[in-house]
Amino acid sequence: MVPLVEVNDLTVRFVTREMTVHAVNGVTFSVSPGEVLCILGESGSGKSVTLRALMRLLPPRRAQITGSIRVDGEDVLALDAKGLRHLRGGLVSMIFQEPMTALDPVYTIGHQIVETIREHKGGTHAAARARALELLELVKIPSPERRLDNYPHELSGGLRQRAMIAMALSCGPRLLLADEPTTALDATVQIQVLILLRRLQKELGMGTIFVTHDLGVASEIADRIAVMYAGRIVEEGPVADVLAAPLHPYTRGLLASTVHGQSRDHDIDAIPGSPPDLRIVPTGCAFAPRCGMAIPQCRAGIPEERHPSPGRMARCIRVDAPVPAYA
Amino acid sequence: MINYIIRRILYAIPIAFGVSVVCFSLVYLAPGDPLQTILPSDASAETIALVKAAYGFDKPLPIQFLKWLGHVLTGDFGESIATRRPVILEVSGALYNTATLTTFAIPISFTMGYVMGAIAGCFPGRVLDRVITGTAVFGVSLPNYWFGIVLVIIFAVQLMALPATGMGGSGSADFNVFRWADARFLILPVITLSMVPIGVIARTTRAAVAEVLNQDFTITLRAKGLSEFAIVRHVLKNALPQVLAVMGLQFGYLMGGSILVETVFTWPGSGFLLSKAIINRDIPVLQGTILLLSLIFVTINLVVDLLQSVIDPRIRRN
């Protein structure tokens, strides 16, 4: 099958007069049509930046992007302004983390959906409004007729995120990018939105890239998982395999640091230390300073991709050798 | 919405009342005794008492205030000490002349300020932004009476293209803006008066637009594939409430008429009237002018509040 998304050796650097931040350092992945890839990582691991680079939403004057991004055969980094407008919202759309700030506060929900539809599909205002109403029904917003004329601040967080999803789906995108869409919501609402997204993704057959720091969310929605650390994918594989038998010590650390029914007196195993400073280019494995299994060779060079079994990848020089449990 | 309008109007009433108290107290806050201007310096104690009683100055202050307020509410602001004409005629004539200037200065300065500020805000840090911001600082910092004098020297004295002062041969009573012979007199004062509002509004708009562009939803607008034009429309609507607040203030200042600018151009407007009243210690005129101007100010701000809430419905909630 021809992949829907092909990202090859993507790097993103933010350059200011004072410093250069190496946010993404050589990321390669692909997503098939209808597949859900979850990018997992802590804040500052470069997952959101990767997502935004896919739509060229990074500030053009500060962000230096190299590598290649192809979506549905289109070379995203080579698109002109018109091609980019067609890509954004038409072929690819994005759901953001915080629906309160991601929606324009001074326009109604209806207006914001209608303008998207008319930008891409043209047509009359009435037709676009009718479609907007269908979309609100699709995302299960109660009394959708009335909600069309509501302003974002008049909706609850969950409804706002549903409206955001409706807007993202309005032009039938082939690829959906979701940037921590449930993080800002209450726990109960989180699950509802997640179930909704999962159902819509299956029904509409959209390829999806879902960025999260929440392992539970990832296991709920993903087909495949890519774990990012310091701007690099350190492990990738089918969700069940990665969660059952993580290869990279960082992934293992993430799993160990999640609450899942440990006894109360048992401390959660937090990963010691903190993520590296991205202003400094690492010469070895970026995780080595925090890794309990690090050996001198870890710092000698950036670990190559290793594929111990089909579909699995990890950037750790100790992957081939049997490794003891993460200390 | 109706509730909000009623609430805002009710808020305006105590403000208007406060303003009237301050205007009334002017007589007592101003240095010197108001009777000094009427009475000869060697008046006897009996004469002073007589005049005091005649003007009601012998009554307790609250009584004096209520009587004054009663007159004011029926449109009776008393008589000008200097001209013996009713204050209401003096003030309304002057306000009308100032309004003539304002009618031209407002559209010019608001449009220019908003457009300049919007352009600068959309391209922060670029050359165009620097040029506009520089011009705006120039407009705000330049003393406008000095700028008026320079304009007079260039266009009236050197080029002899435009009149220097006054309202033309037919005077203020017959002034007709649709007659070129009269309208020529407007040009220099209107340009001079527009400088400050252009600068202030351009700077406010620039800051507001730049702030809106930093908000998350502008990324959503881009991610939806909207055209730059549509994005700018969103940004401008979001920036407008902030700019409206400043526009309202500038409108108020312009209605107050710049004392200095109107003096430079001998334009018989409210600023000119105020300066005359101050020099002549014409307290009734001063009271009447300040009261009316304050009420205009309160009204403009009320209208601005309502407009803001129409644009940004979140304002109605607080």
List the helices and strands and how they pair.
The complex is a heterodimer of chains A (327) and B (318).
Chain A: E1 5-15, E2 20-31, E3 36-40, H1 47-54, E4 63-71, E5 74-75, H2 81-91, E6 92-95, H3 99-102, H4 109-121, H5 125-138, H6 144-148, H7 157-169, E7 175-179, H8 187-204, E8 207-212, H9 215-221, E9 224-229, E10 232-238, H10 239-244, H11 249-256, E11 313-314
Parallel strand pairs in A: 3-8, 3-9, 6-7, 7-8
Antiparallel strand pairs in A: 1-2, 1-4, 4-5, 9-10, 10-11
Helix pairs in contact in A: 4-5, 5-7, 7-8
Chain B: H1 2-29, H2 45-55, H3 61-73, H4 87-122, H5 127-141, H6 144-158, H7 180-213, H8 217-223, H9 228-255, H10 259-264, H11 270-279, H12 283-311
Helix pairs in contact in B: 1-12, 4-5, 4-7, 4-9, 4-11, 4-12, 5-7, 6-7, 7-9, 9-12, 11-12
Task: Write out key terms for the chains shown.
heterodimer, A: 327 residues, alpha/beta, 4-stranded antiparallel beta sheet, 21% strand, B: 318 residues, mainly alpha, MetI-like fold
Structure description:
The complex is a heterodimer of chains A (327) and B (318). Chain A has one domain: Rossmann fold (3-Layer(aba) Sandwich), CATH 3.40.50.300. Helix content of chain A is 33%, strand content 21%. Chain A contains 11 helices and 11 strands. The radius of gyration of chain A is 21 Å and the shape is globular. The model of chain A has no long low-confidence stretch (mean pLDDT 89). Chain B has a domain at 96-278: MetI-like (MetI-like fold). Chain B contains 12 helices and no strands. The model of chain B has no long low-confidence stretch (mean pLDDT 86). At the A-B interface, helix 2 and helix 4 of A face helix 8 and helix 9 of B.
| E-strand count of chain B | 0
> In one word, what is the shape of chain A?
globular
CATH homologous superfamily name of the domain at 96-278 in chain B? MetI-like
SS-based class of chain B: mainly alpha
Percentage of residues assigned to helices of chain B:
over 70%
Count of separate DSSP helical elements of chain B: 12
Rg of chain B, alpha carbons: 24 Å
Q: Could you state the oligomeric state of the chains shown?
A: heterodimer
How many E-type strands of chain A?
11
What is the straight-line distance between the termini of chain A? 41 Å
Helical run tally of chain A: 11
> Could you tell me the mean pLDDT of chain A?
89
Query: What topology, given as strand order, has the largest sheet of chain A?
Result: 6-7-8-3-9-10-11
Radius of gyration of chain A: 21 Å
Looking at this structure, what is the CATH superfamily of chain A?
P-loop containing nucleotide triphosphate hydrolases
The CATH class label of the domain at 96-278 in chain B is Mainly Alpha
Top CATH class of chain A: Alpha Beta
What is the largest interface, and how many residues per chain?
A-B, 28 and 21 residues
